[in-house]
Amino acid sequence: MLELRLVQGSLLKKVMEALKDLVTDANFDCSATGFSLQAMDSSHVALVALLLRSEGFEHYRCDRNLSMAQDKIADFEMKLMDIDSEHLGIPEAEYHAIVRMPSSEFARICKDLSSIGDTVVISVTKEGVKFSTRGDIGTANIVCRQNSTVDKPEEATVIEMNEPVSLTFALRYMNSFTKATPLSNTVTISLSSELPVVVEYKIAEMGYVRFYLAPKIEEDEEETNP
Fold this sequence. Notes:
One of its GO terms (biological process) is leading strand elongation. The chain has helices spanning about 10-20, 105-115, 170-175, 220-225; strands at about 1-5, 30, 35-40, 45-55, 60, 65-70, 95-100, 120-125, 130-135, 140-145, 160, 165-170, 185-190, 195-205, 205-215. By secondary structure, the protein is an alpha+beta fold. It folds into two domains: about 1-60, DNA Polymerase III, subunit A, domain 2 (DNA Polymerase III, Chain A, domain 2); about 95-205, Proliferating Cell Nuclear Antigen (Box). The protein has a nine-stranded antiparallel sheet with strand order 6-2-3-4-15-14-13-7-11. Strands 10-9-8-12 form a four-stranded antiparallel sheet. Strands 1-5 form a two-stranded antiparallel sheet. It starts with a strand and ends with a helix.
């Protein structure tokens, strides 16, 4: 038996709003520890991982592990969606740079840059994090400097850096990720040259939504390195 009850039903609606444009079909996995989802977008470019821990629910009961949306025998002899339920291994990794900033500011930056270019270069140095784009009508650069002395922690920009990093990503995916902004006041962006970026929105003490996206390879690099 599976029984779930949330104090704020709007939370689940916000989660669905955050995922619906990126993922069309997915399994929800339920266990004694919580409610989770892992899926790729239709182009197999981006990955999303969701976790809602059992202790975050007002009432949570799951007597056995369930994967919702798998094939089941029904009186109507109808076949439910056949969705790949195999989970991808997401190893824990150490990142060259981790940026924590207001989620609304990150959403605004991605939206503003989209009016100029299709990609964003995220560069992290000791001076701060820079978001850059280039298009037919010009270029744009937005720099966010570290600021951890503000009165409200959710308004701070905090940078942890082991070494500088500069990577390019598709803005359409970044804008899709920002649909999760209503879930959290802050967003954490983890970057490393050998790994996909991780854009994480924490859902209070309940869990998180994490988006993974591989960096784009610049055309000039491809031309010089056939």
